Amino acid sequence: MTATGITAFGVDPAVVDMMGRVFADHRESHPPTAGVERDSTLWQTLDELGLLRLTGAESAGGSGAGWYEAAELLAAAVHHGVRIPLAEHDLLACWLLEANTMECDKAVRTAAMLSDQGVATGVPWATGAERIVVVWPTGDEYRVADVEVAALDITPGINLIGEPRDTVRADVGTLTGAPLAAELVAVLRRKSALVRSIQVCAALDRILALSIEHCGSRVQFGRPLSNFQTVQNLISDIAAETALARAATEAALTAAVTSDWSAAKLDFLIAVARSCTGHATSVVVRNAHQVHGAMGTTFEHRLHEFTRPALAWRSEFGSMQHWDGQVTDAALQAGTAGLWSLITG
After folding, report:
1. In the chain, what are the helix, strand and coil shares in percent, each to the nearest 5?
2. SS3 letters for 265-287?
3. At residue 9, does pLDDT exceed 80?
4. Contact 206, 217 (CB under 8 A)
5. Which pLDDT tens digit goes with each residue over 53-105?
6. C-alpha separations of 98 from 95, 146, 294 in Å
7. Count of CB atoms within 10 A of residue 32's CB?
8. Domain spans of the chain, in order of start
9. Domain range 183-344, CATH class
């Protein structure tokens, strides 16, 4: 494991360290606030370092890296409590344009999946974006368009931690979109779901580290908190749930990368990752706040910078109920004869 909370699958340690320093420096001079906006100075710094379009093709101005490097970058931002639409811009919106052989310039982007009525709710970071890559169904097919935000009706909203989660409306009849293969839409959904698992895992790792640090340094009744068996049990459960979530997420990430997002069981693995991270969050957040006591509920303490994001992100791009249902459906479909092979691969 690296300091950012996700396994570095051959990622250059110097690159990982550089990512961490960028966000650490930013966090030091930018304490958390109630509202979250994209910081243009940080955005420019990331662009200059080649991190803004980390996975983009070099021929299109990207850095040509892969999802392992992207996972480290996302985890580094979470580790330092920095909120910025890296995943939405690089891994979702710009990737989709490139995958569909469409031009992707340096404008700030996010992606939105519109309904038949041309509405998308909970769109991350639409507020503050310059263009939105919108996808919409047309019968049994899909179309995609790279649209200026001025041409869309955007109603601002926020999630639990103040990140923009907006409602986007478009008149699809006036959009001149390009055809989009259904398989690319499926991959977009997979990538969106796995992004949040990676971020939640990074938050859970930080919660674990803070909890261990707290119970090792605080003294009650003449003894360190870490000497009390009840506290030890709480920490053990945090560590176990965090490890389970991380293992499930890394398994899905490995299958995705090695199969170019087309492995036969990838949807099941992503569903397992999302289910595990969702349920782990319940235990980790509860236990961490019990360990920290009243101190952990204050705005000045950093615990909330990780517990609240974990709770917010676990329900985005699919609720816990949705992902639990996906796992259940896959198990039922596999049946008694196929369940073991479904789990073990």
Report:
1. 55, 15, 30
2. CHHHHHHHHHHHHHHHHHHHHHH
3. no
4. no
5. 999 999 888 999 999 999 999 999 999 999 999 999 999 999 999 999 999 99
6. 5, 11, 49
7. 15
8. 1-84, 88-180, 183-344
9. mainly alpha
Which two tokens mark 35? 């509202």
- Which of the listed CATH numbers 2.60.40, 3.40.1390, 2.40.110, 3.40.50 matches domain 88-180? 2.40.110
Burial of 333 (0-12, 13-18, 19+ CB in 10 A): exposed
Residue type (1 letter), 324: D
Tell me 328's DSSP state: H
For 103-113, the pLDDT digits (tens) are 999 999 999 99
Longest Cα–Cα distance in the chain: 71
Residue burial 34-56, b: 16+ Cβ < 10 Å; e: rest? eebebeeebbeebeeeebbbbbb
User: What share of the chain has pLDDT > 70, as a percent?
Assistant: 97
- pTM across the whole model: 0.94
Nearest to 202 by CA among 306, 336, 333: 306
132: helix, strand or coil:
strand
